[in-house]
Amino acid sequence: MTEQRFVGMWVTADSHIRLELRSDGRYDEARGTRKGAYTGRYTARGNDLHFVDDSGFTATGRLVDGVLTVGPDIFRRE
To answer: How far apart are CA 55 and CA 74, in angstroms?
Structure first.
């Protein structure tokens, strides 16, 4: 189980990327009209998130003041 503060739908300002963080530690990322563009698991430690895509790709993110940054992408909770 993952902390509730991360769980939910996160979107970029232009809504092009939609990142659903689920309570079971899985995520689903949609890009444009492509649902499930990327799927995988994530773990949280403090304000930091670590993503592992089902293909093996990894990324890190950080939640600060209600803003989630993953690489160059900036998300706000929907």
So the answer is: 23
The reply to whether 2 falls in a domain is no
Query: Is 50 a domain residue?
Result: yes
Full domain range(s) for residue 29: 8-77
Q: For residue range 37-61, what is the model confidence (pLDDT) as tens digits?
A: 999 999 999 999 999 999 999 999 9
CA distance 17 to 3: 22
12 touches 21 (CB < 8 A): no
The CATH number covering residue 24 comes to 2.40.128.290
The dihedral through the CA atoms of 44, 33, 15, 70 has a sign that is positive
Number of domains making up the chain:
1
Model confidence, pTM: 0.92
- H/E stretch holding 64: strand 58-64
| Whether residue 4 has pLDDT greater than 90 | no
